## 1
Amino acid sequence: VNLPVNIINQPELDYGSAVALYHLSQHLPAVKIVPISLSNLSIEQHYRFGQALRYVAMQSNKRVAFITTAELGHTVIPAGATFAQAVLQAIKSHDLSELQNFNLELAESAQSVNEFKCFVVLSGVLSNLQVQAKINSQETYNGRGLLVSQFNLI
């Protein structure tokens, strides 16, 4: 995969990543972490990046977890609720590849383009794998859609 990569040495994590990694590290104190941020590349390039990540993980003899942190949308905006429902439907159907056909204008209207790109990278990671999706929790807090779900290989 021919994609540009920038390596940035930044000691701080964003809030969503920090919370997820805090909970993960409670059970795995020696866990190695590679935080990845998004870019202004196209949706297709984000998908291909996810596929490249999956390829690298599959070549490893180590256990690998991919954690995506993103809001489901700004639920006080009508497009935000529509965006959240579309993402939830893709998760419930166990097929994030549906996001490849997603209307990017809806993500823009929902003020959720970066979140959408997170889901697209995850879609690339999970492409061509048999997975079982489980929604652990879903709520709205301060006008933001929040979801915790997991995908297990079957």
## 2
Amino acid sequence: MLTNAGGLSREKQIEVVAKLGHLVGDAAGDEALGKRAWVLLTEAIPGGWGLWGHAHTNEELVAAARAEIGAIAAVRSAG
């Protein structure tokens, strides 16, 4: 899982890993598999998000995501 640097507190890291393990176990139909799943938590440094041929800072990426969410919401409300 890739997040921005410092994006998850230790509590959130633990929660995310537990939830991803449950998802793996549920998808496989084998709870034991979820308990054996390895989750790699990776943090992107500012400027470390490559998207649309540009190295984005965390702030640029958040702004782009918010703009995309707004565009999707506008289409849904119009349709």
## 3
Amino acid sequence: MARRAQRAPASDVVTPRPVGDLTAYLTEVCGEATAEPGFRAALTELLTLALTHRSYAYEAGGIPHNERLEFLGDSVLGVVVTDRLYHDHPDEPEGQLARLRASVVNSRALAGVARTIDLGGYLQLGRGEESTGGRDKDSILADALEAVIGAVYLSGGMSAAIELVHTLFDPLMRHSATLGAGLDWKTSLQEAAAARGLGAPVYDIESDGPEHAKTFVATVRLDGTPLGQGTGRTKKDAEMQAAAVAVESMGAVEGA
């Protein structure tokens, strides 16, 4: 995807990434629904709302913000994830299915997914949230991702929303038995390594590109052996992807 949000050197003003970049990405992953007349225009308009945090809305004179879309997207996400887990785990009782769902649909997990598409770079935030790192806050990212799902649902219907949720969340759903509620891939790898009597994971980071649009590559090693590599627009994202690859390569994921 294109450049990240850029900070102007002379002030704290951040220019968000163009909404059109996100529209283009979502159009690629939302399937046949994107061929419907007016889909892109409707989606772009709704995404503008989905990316507007209440702090920005307040400072802009009380314009609409993303919380209604978040409410809708939360329900859509819950239905799609629950349906997938229900069919993927036919022998699990209700309580276990609820735990599996909680490992996927929680703020920390949603924020991790949001970071993989650099959702924070698109946000419209008020000055206070901007100055306190709001673009990378789990709660803000999770809420914005749910709002985006709501926007896709309204633009392209349930079929488009299902395509998006599966694209973004299938890796988590496949490995939900390994990820406890609120855990992440780095935590899972660390626990898997400890269970096997291995040392702590070590991450090597390289970067490429201009300062405002760096791409990071992380390689994770256990006892000196490289087990996974990931890329991302932040070091954290690259490390998380590398850890996910390593968990799979170790056979730590149930059913791997």
